[in-house]
Amino acid sequence: MHLLTHIRKELLLLSRDRAGLLVLFVMPVLLVLVLTLVQDNVFRATGETATRALFINLDEGSQGEDLKQGLQSTGVLDLVEDFSGDMIEQEVARQLIFRGDYQFAIIVPADFSTVVAAAAEAAARSALRGDEVGFDPGVLTIYFDPAVRGVYRTAVSSSVQRGLLGVAMASRSEALMRLLSRDLQDNIDEQLKPYGATGMVNVELPELAEDWMTPPLIELAEESAAPRKFPTMPTSVQQNVPAWTLFGMFFIVIPLAGTMIRERQDSTLTRLLTMPVSIAGLLGGKVVAYLLICLLQFMLMLLVGRVFLPLLGTPQLDMGTSPAALVLIAVTSALAACGYGMLVGVMARSFDQAAIFGSVSVVIAAALGGVMVPVYMMPQVMQSISIISPLGWGLEAFLDIFVRGGDLLSVLPQVLTLSGFFLLCMLIAALVFRRWRQGA
Amino acid sequence: MIATQSDPVIRVAGLTKTYPGSRHPAVDRLNLEVTGGLIFGLLGPNGAGKTTTISIVCTLLRPDTGRVEVLGQEVLSKAGMIRRSIGLVPQEIALYPTLTIRENLCYFARVLGVEKKRLSARVGACLDLTGLADLADRRVDRCSGGMKRRANLAVGILHEPQILLLDEPTVGIDAQSRNLILEQLRELNRQGMTLLYTTHYMREAEDLCDEIAVIDSGRVVVQGAPRQLIGANPACENLEDLFLALTGKALRE
Description:
Largest sheet of chain A: 4 strands, mixed
Order of helices and strands of chain B: EEEHEEHEHHHEHEHEEHH
Structural class of chain B: alpha/beta
Radius of gyration of chain A: 34 Å
Largest interface: A-B, 23 and 31 residues
Shape of chain B: globular
Oligomer: heterodimer
Order of helices and strands of chain A: HHEHEEEHEHEHHHHHHHHHH
Distance between the termini of chain A: 23 Å
Largest sheet of chain B: 6 strands, mixed
Number of strands of chain A: 6
Mean pLDDT of chain A: 82
Strand content of chain B: 15-25%
Number of strands of chain B: 10
Distance between the termini of chain B: 39 Å
Number of helices of chain A: 15
Low-confidence stretches of chain A: 222-230
């Protein structure tokens, strides 16, 4: 069958194809590095670590400081009060936001404590005595970078609202205690007055602990709506390394299909078809050669995830606990990529056609399969469509190993689907070759 | 399957082939016999059916009707057997351009089943025969047109086929390279190889061929030894005159 002869020739051809090697090795490495780092920052900005925000405290009282303590204690916001060693003024803060240096600035006005105290007093008086005492609520301003996404903005607003609620509650309870104590004393004095007991009874209310409002009465539990499918969300490294590795693997379509089309165009295939070679040998040689390339790509990407990305500050790639399953997924994904390359190679009529169709179809399959945006973040309709993407099958299996502690059994459905896809592509390619061989 | 000088090694009877979408057959009830040990020239204007005939003989194309035998084996049913006995030198440079000449030859030799212990010697012999021994490690895409043509020929003879099919093997090269290739073809023929080749160069065919067939519109117009055919037409001084007399001066495809 001359399989080794064909494999050797394919590898030799590839070694002379610098552009092809660039596509196969440099492109996925760059994609993994750049996109992981970019998305890692997004992950950090959306909850993995505290968001940095400017905090301009102009308050002349103590409530501004209380608000600051409250916001910092949540761990959601990392408040910055000075810039290059100087206190930040309101206008400077606005410019820093506008320039994009920061995404948020919280401005506490000078009369914040006064306004809060007055409002709390009025509210308590209204509660105890039924007085309709009006007051003007104070205004605390947050400057947002206009480019910040709505969800992110809502999250920060919500944190500040919680901080304000804490300050308001503390002020209200203090005012309530003060007024309640005074009103009770007045009430007792008035009732005992006919009996000549004025000033004889001293009313003392029990003092409340300062943090009596702090412990939540009801805790909020966040839970995934699809715990079976996404019990744990991947990190940017766990998501991006397998995703872009698969993308790189499937880009083997271009050099593989290109080789096949060049063989047709320069008549080497014609020559081969007049020689005593088997179709299985011809196709098998290509598949094995490119399979080796894909597996090399895979190992390089794992190296990037394990060694290079952590050097740039990302978490290290956790590869799960089933190396056998990992190898099996890598091999079947690579086979699926090679099979698709063979299919495009026999169907396309020119190199341009193969390059354009091959790359566009891989990008579409990557988008559908969750390479660019994770499947769980897609609309429901797109999540349903994503099941047709071989890259999606591979990615799902890799995430199962990396994130959910999957094993051979749990990735078996994806392994079988990828193998089926490979066999189907090869069957079609072999039929087309057979037609050519028979002079049709 | 050892063919003697008098045995026809290629027999074509009633061969017809029409390409999909074409109204006229490329080959139309063509009959031809090529005797073993000869250099047989298949001549004709563009579109006459030369390449189609060679493609069917070398098992690349299926005929619509008719029967083609190579070394007594029918091309449709015994294609595998025929492929071991023929060599093809196609019109295009059918080599991997980014591989060296030697790498190309080694690959095709292995595909052709040349034994491992003989492989190096066979590749060396073919390189020597085609005058490429000193250039064997040059990449094909960095070779001149003449070198590529010679390398193209070298691949066709790696497995020492009984029949060598050549489709315009000297097209587009300088006089020196053409002369060298023609010398090599004569040498191969002296070694007992039957050659069936097509060309547009009438002078070349007149000098080289033991026998020719002029075909036009898919049919054989005349067949015989060049000198005899020229002699039978007193108005023609050479093969080119005869060719124009037989096929006309009107432009073709």
